[in-house]
UniProtKB/TrEMBL annotation, chains A, B:
Record family assignment: In the N-terminal section; belongs to the acetate CoA ligase alpha subunit family.
InterPro entries, sorted: Acyl-CoA_Synth/Transferase, ATP-grasp, ATP_grasp_subdomain_1, CoA-bd, Ligase_CoA_dom, NAD(P)-bd_dom_sf, Succ_CoA_lig_flav_dom, Succinyl-CoA_synth-like
Protein name: Acetate--CoA ligase family protein
Residue ranges annotated for the ATP-grasp domain, each copy included: 495-531
Upper lineage: Bacteria, Candidatus Eiseniibacteriota
One Pfam short name: Succ_CoA_lig
Oxidoreductase found in the keyword field: no
GO molecular function, one term: metal ion binding
Keywords recorded for this protein, A-Z: ATP-binding, Ligase, Nucleotide-binding
Top-level taxon: Bacteria
Length: 712, 712
């Protein structure tokens, strides 16, 4: 029996908490956590629990949970691993809602059974487990620092979910040093029960959280995670640092968290599908979250660069292209706006070059002009140290203009490059949360992140599209293969599967007589291909059992007779059951459509350039299933070969609708048939518009059976 | 008549200098430069020149050059633009060797004529011009700061050449703030005369220069630059920041320096050819140069990561893959080395995880073990702030280990992540030139740069390969086209050109009778293609003038007769001069080989995947010419489709030698025939090994004629 799950909000706003394993020893985690809870100012009831009793930090220590009265929302468990299960049992029967299991020594070192048993017991009793193997969590909403970190967390608007304990602990000091305010920080550790998706349900709604940073090594809750991320990213920016992106890194990650890191290409594509921003390094992640938590969404894509140096202007222009920031291009508007405030040797082309002679006053006037112009939606302001500009005026100039831009809701980022005074000014401004960077690439990277996030609003959450497929027939085909002890489909089963799914195939018939063969060819239309059908002839071509490109009745008759003659000569004992007459597949664009069950994300679909290029060019992309026709179109645009679908060099545009349809059908199949683990249509040959596309070859692998021996 | 050019060493080590336009006004450039010269401690003779006379900074001011006795190696000119030419004339006739023209107002604002005239005059007199439009130069070898920058340049081992004045000036403060020592810094401005290549000739030999940073917006001296860069990068690391890499950035660069920025793909490929490291941002460039100037080349590729946090270990592993750092993989060796110094919960797999319990002592022992192991060639040491590690011990631990690694010549980089104390420790160590970074990606980036540089030593400078081509015939073909007023070649001229160059074509003959056609077909070998030859029939296929895939004598006879019949019916008045009998081109791998004259780099050659994919996938790469067979092989490996050449999915390996040969022949052609501006063989169809490759289609554009009307 499963109890109802407690509301995740309660984890972040508990009314009463207990620390099991609270310690008198100042060096112990059981003391440190209690100390942080007390110091950070949590106002609910705090109950240290330790059989020894006594008092810690002025709080009476309870010998057991039984001594505590009233409801207990959250318990923090930091007893040795061998006592954890007992403690969990006690909490569960006491009606505790959430149990933070700090203790390590479970699945991360191979002890997965104990972990599973603990979670199973907790779930049954309606208690949820965070961890094990975590450093705890912090919630600004409750002024609750339930971690064994260094303390001193600055409350604010960035939420952090981290799968790495050591990195998370170090983030506490680092965020404080950089004055990045935290709304919540959660260590998820082994993720035995509570997953990122559960925490996001709270963070999406938490009004004090204005941006979310996730450090992920491996995904476990793919389906729910994709669902909540799609919603979350349309409410507030979500940034993911995914480590283990390299093959070797993935192996390192797996060894230290006991979680399987999926392929990085899949992760990358699915984050795009969700509208999540990907950061490569921790620095990038912090920069984005700090900036995005404080910056309103721009009203449009018109960005202007204002600079006192041509060189950094050019660098910023490059950076804008790299990070997807569009520069305003209206020469007339730019001249009208900046002409009056630009010196004669300067430039009103974007970048606006105020020249090396610019002072704070020149910047003020140019930034005024940009602020007043409604077709300018965001600004990159660059400063190179010059003798003409009094560095003492840099800080007020930047701070005042930033404040005005903030008030007006117009995003602005700064970069300042120069000597020690510039560096220290920059450090102070940055600590005051002004987006200012020494390197122009870092500045533009932030603005680029804002625009990537901005795109989420342009694309409303897409509904999921499915296609009708004949599940009864699919079930029959799988059952047939299972009955023969196979975990893959034979060619004719694959063809039948495509029919049941509704993806067109080259036309084909089996003819048992010459007359049937001619009739089949006439019905299919010339040119056709003839192939012998015989389970005794393995190598059809070698036996002379194949004839290609037959263009008329006479050629079919000749070929039919030749095939029988050749095959009887080659394999005298062969039992020939007929000849397969097939449409000769015309040349078209060779694509690949596939689907599989990812260990992290569950059912995913793949699309890309097919044929022999698929392995070499790896020009493919992925989506989590379910997906929509609109999303599949976006997906198509991600492959480098997309122009081939649109038609290049005088070639016709391909029948894109039919390709989208094939992707949706394969996506529907993988989602509705747990019996299938992998399916790959390669090539799917796409023809000109109106002429559809055809699945020329298909490979299907079956999943390991469910315990009850069924496929679903 | 051209005088011999002065030795470039003299520019960096002048015995006597003058400043023309020296000023009494402390706000003027003419004062600032003199002040920097005096302050930095230049020990040669310093002559301020100003008609007003008097004394500046204790130095007697000369009214004119005539008043100065003895040789003058370098003159710094900072008079208004309209007086520059007069000053140049005076210097030239005075025998000045180098003239730094600080003054702006020349080609960068469209005044290119004056600039050209100045340079032409100077060259004739044997004087060289740096600039115009520069902030000057600094040379540590002469303790000479001849810039109008802020002063305070820290002498050291990094040389900087910058095309941007504002950025360069700001670099003076920035390098001082970061304690990056400078051996030389040169502002090249409009590069009217002295180019990067000239300066590199000195910097390659200058022993105090241990790494070279170039900020480039556009290349002008491609040939000499490539030549000297190839030499330089085999002596010391060279890092290039190329701005204007985006299309828009290139436009911005062109507008502000008056130089044409070439395509970024070409620049990128040619820097690879030279062994130059590319940095995207100024930060990356500084990080690399600072690190590379102080780090000896590693003895091998075995890198070990040592960490106290799993998460950053995984991030570093990802970064190693990104930046081409190979992690040591010998589990047994790693266990033997690190087992004794790693806690029981840690890991001796690479990354070596000392766990969150690690202290400075644990690091010392692990770093000792890594230092002692000769199969470990470099180390990435990572630190995440923990409660167990006393931050006060961080600085000495890092500094001492760094010193020991330096002494042993084993490269090491550090990353430390944590709160304010960690940050300030890191800042201090970094100022002491210890390679330590807050972000692991930045640390590994440096090590990756070292390994990229290291590769230069594995590849000795390649000799240039050329192929014999029949230049007389090439000249004839071009002359024929010129005579008809064309700037492109016709199909048959292109075919003849390929023959003269020695690149195989599909076999082909023109037959004037049926007998000739049959004989041609027999000689060429079936299958063949027949095409009508008639200048009156434009659309050969429409007129029934083409027959494909003829497999025997009978089919050739039928087709020949049909072609005559069809064409006479379609175009009764046509003068039919015969039928072209060609080899039917077999399917193979379609490649593209091209060459052109780049405005910056001069003759360059291109190689990549051909056919319709060339435009869509842009899977091509470039090299400056001359190049070598070995370099062309390296070039081939750069394209994504390279595995197709090696044979995938059971396909045969292609005849790579024949493709290399075609590239070398096209490279030789573009180098030896200035009359050709562009040539593109697409497709060059490559067959299995031993079967060569064939130029199926070729397009050739002719260059604008030289003034004397010749092609060379």
């Amino acid at each position: 029996m499963t109890h109802p799950r407690p509301d995740i909000h309660r984890l972040f706003r508990p009314r009463a908490i207990a620390v099991i394993g609270a310690s008198h020893d100042r060096e112990k985690i059981g003391f440190k956590i209690l100390q942080n809870i007390v110091t950070a100012g949590y106002s609910g009831a705090i109950h240290p629990v330790n059989p020894k009793g006594g008092e810690i930090l002025g709080l009476p220590v309870r010998a057991s949970l039984a001594e505590i009265e009233g409801e207990l929302d959250v318990v923090c468990t930091c007893v040795p691993a061998k006592h954890v299960f007992d403690s969990v049992r006690a909490c569960a029967s006491r009606g505790v809602k959430f149990n933070l299991v700090i203790t390590s020594g479970f699945s991360e070192i191979g002890n997965a059974e104990e972990e599973k048993a603990i979670v199973a017991h907790a779930r049954e009793q309606g208690m949820r487990i965070l961890g094990p193997n975590i450093f705890g969590m912090y919630s600004a909403a409750a002024a609750l620092d339930m971690t064994f970190g260094p303390g001193g967390i600055v409350p604010g608007n960035v939420a952090i979910i981290t799968q790495s304990g050591a990195l998370g602990l170090a983030m506490i000091g680092k965020t404080a040093a950089e004055n990045i305010g935290i709304s919540a920080m959660v260590s998820v550790g082994n993720k035995a029960d509570i997953q990122e998706s559960d925490l996001l349900e709270y963070l999406v709604e938490d009004e004090s959280t204005l941006s979310i940073l996730m450090y992920i090594e491996g995904v476990r809750d793919g389906g729910p995670l994709v669902e909540v991320l799609q919603r979350a990213a349309r409410v507030k920016p979500v940034v993911a640092i995914k480590s283990g992106r390299s093959k070797r890194g993935a192996a390192a990650a797996a060894s230290h968290t006991g979680s399987l890191a999926g392929s990085d290409e899949i992760f990358e594509a699915i984050m795009r599908q969700c509208g999540v921003l990907r950061a490569e390094s921790v620095r990038e992640g912090f920069d984005l979250c700090k900036f995005l938590a404080r910056t309103r969404t721009p009203r449009g894509r018109g960005t202007v660069i204002i600079t006192n140096g041509g060189g950094i202007g050019v660098l910023a222009t490059d950076a804008c292209e790299k990070y997807g920031v569009s520069l305003l291009d209206d020469a007339q508007d730019l001249r009208a706006t900046f002409g009056p405030v630009t010196p004669s040797f300067g430039s009103t082309r974007n970048p606006i070059d105020l020249t090396g002679g610019a002072t704070a006053d020149h910047y003020d006037r140019a930034l005024d002009a940009a602020l007043a112009n409604d077709s300018i939606h965001s600004v990159v302001a660059l400063y190179c140290e010059t003798a003409m500009f009094d560095v003492a005026t840099l800080a007020p100039m930047v701070a005042q203009n930033y404040a005005r831009y903030q008030d007006a809701g117009k995003p602005i980022v700064f970069s300042a490059f120069g000597g020690g005074d510039v560096e220290s000014t920059l450090g102070r401004l940055s600590r005051d949360r002004v987006p200012i960077f020494s390197d122009v690439y870092d500045a533009v990277h932030c603005l680029g992140g804002l625009y990537r996030h901005f795109e989420n609003f342009a694309h409303p959450l897409r509904r999921s599209d499915e296609a009708p497929i004949d599940l009864a027939v699919v079930g029959e085909i799988l059952a047939g293969a299972r009955a023969e002890g196979r975990t893959f489909l034979l060619a004719h089963e694959g063809r039948r599967l495509m029919e049941a799914v509704g993806i067109p195939l080259p036309r084909s018939r089996v003819a048992r007589t010459l007359e049937e063969a001619v009739r089949a060819a006439e019905e299919i239309g010339y040119p056709v291909v003839l192939k012998v059908v015989s389970r005794d002839i393995l190598h059809k071509s070698d036996a002379g059992g194949v004839a290609l490109d037959l263009e008329n009745r006479d050629e079919v008759i000749d070929a039919y007779q030749a095939i029988y003659r050749n095959c009887r000569a080659a394999v005298p004992a062969a039992n020939i059951s007929g000849v397969e007459v097939s449409e000769m597949v015309r040349k078209g664009l060779e694509l690949i459509v596939g689907a599989r069950r990812d260990p992290g994300f569950g059912p995913i679909v793949m699309f890309g350039l097919g044929g022999i290029y698929v392995e070499v060019l790896k020009d493919v992309t992925f989506r989590a299933v379910p997906t929509s026709r609109a999303e599949v179109l976006t997906m198509m645009k991600e492959i480098r070969a997309f122009p081939l679908l649109m038609g290049v060099r005088g070639e016709e545009r391909k029948d894109i609708d039919s390709v989208v349809d094939a992707v949706i059908r394969i996506a529907t199949l993988i989602r509705s048939c747990p019996g299938i683990s992998d399916i790959e249509v390669n090539p799917l040959v796409a023809y000109e518009e109106g002429e559809g596309s055809k699945a020329v070859d298909v490979r299907v692998l079956l999943a390991a059976l469910e315990e009850d021996g069924t496929d679903a």
